[in-house]
Amino acid sequence: MRKEYSSPAPRAIPFAATSANFATLHVTLAPLARAAQTSFGDSSKDKFAAINVMVASLPVMRRCRRIEHAETRPSMTAPATIRRVAFQGERGAFSEEAAVSLLGENIEAVPRPSFDALFSAIQEGAADYALAPIENTLAGSVHQSYDLLLESRLQIVGEVIHPIAHYLIGPPNATLDRLASVQSHPVALAQCEHLFRAHPQLQRVASLDTAGSVREVVAANDPSQAAIAGKRAAEIYGGKILLEHIEDHRENYTRFLLLAASSQPSERANKLSLVIQLAHQPGALHRALGIFARRDINLLKIESRPIPGSPWQYRFYLDLQAALHGAETVAALEELRRCTDEVRILGCYPAHEIPARDSK
Question: What b/e string do you get for 34-51 counting C-beta neighbours within 10 Å, with b at 16 or more?
C-alpha cells in the first residue's frame, strides 16, 4: 500500500548552535526523515506531494547547515567561559587592546611584569592563554618573544594584527602649554618624533611600559608631566587626552601571537609557523626553502636567531601560507626533516589580515 504524506509546515529551530541541542534538531527533522522513506507513485498527485516535501524541508536544511557550521567553527569572540589571557605590561597596554580585539571584552586580563613572566603564566596556572608581541611594522621583530617561544614549548593558536595609535595623555588638570616632560616606553617615544620636534621643550623620559606611564602621571597629578600610550590607558586610569594620533606613521601595526599549552588546528587554519636548524654548509638554506617553492607554498616571513652556546650558528623561524594537514605541506615537511638538523612546528592557525584604518 502506498503511503500518503502531506507536508507539514516547517518548524523553527529556536536554539543556539551547541552539541547539547542536536536532540532538538533530531526531533525537528523527524518528519523529513519519514518523508525520505515514503514511496511515491507516478501520478501527478504523488509528484506534487514529493515536491512539497522538498520545498517544506529547505528552511530546516538551511538552518541545519548553519548550525553545523557554527558548531565546528572555533569561536574567538563568544567563549562559553571567561578565559584568562596574560600579556606583558599593565592594564591599558596595547597588548590588552589586542587581546580584546581578538577575543572580545569577555576575558580576564592578566598583566605580567616581564616577558619571562608572560611566557611562564600558563605553566604557573595564572592564565589560559598568553598574548605576545612578535613584530612591529616600524620597530621590527621582538627578538625576546622569538627566543622565549622556543624555550617555553607553547603552541601558537592564533594571531592578531593590531593598529598602534599613540595618544598624549596627562592628569586631569594638564594642558599642552604647561608640559615639561613626556614619559613612555622607548619604542613609543621613538615613534613620535614629530611631537618632540614640534615641542622641543619636552623632555623624554624612558619607562618600562606605556600604560604604566599613564598610571604614574595621573597618580602624580603634576600638570607638567604627560605620557604616551593608547586610548584604553586613558580610559582606565582617568587620564586627559591632550593630543590624538601623534604617531609619525599611520601604518603602524603590531602582530601578536596567541599562545596556549597545546593546540588542535581548526579547519580555518591557513598559516604555519615552524623553526628549523641547518647544517653550517653552502646551500643549506637554499635547499630548505626550495622544498616549499617547488610546491608553491608561499613563504611569508623568515627570521634568524643565534643559537645560545653555539657561536655563529642560527635557527630560522618560518611563517608559511599553508595548512598543516594539506597534502603538499605534509610532503614538504617530510622532505624538510631529511635535509635539516631539526624541525619544530610552532603552530598552525588562522591568519589575520591587516585591518582597514580610518582615513581621518
Answer: ebeeeebeeeeebeebbe
* Nearest to 234, CA basis, from 253, 215, 209, 260: 215
Do 265 and 349 form a contact (C-beta atoms < 8 A)? yes
Q: Which neighbouring-strand residues pair with 228?
A: 168
Residue with cell 587620564: 239
Give tens-digit pLDDT for 267-276.
889 999 999 9
Q: Which residues are catalytic?
A: 254, 256
Count other Cβ atoms within 10 Å, centred on residue 296: 9
Q: Name the pairing type of β-strands 155-163 and 181-184.
A: unpaired
pLDDT tens profile 53-62: 444 444 444 4
Place of cell 582615513: 359
Per-residue DSSP letters for 162-212? EE---EEEE-TT--GGG--EEEE-HHHHHTTHHHHHH-TTPEEEE-S-HHH
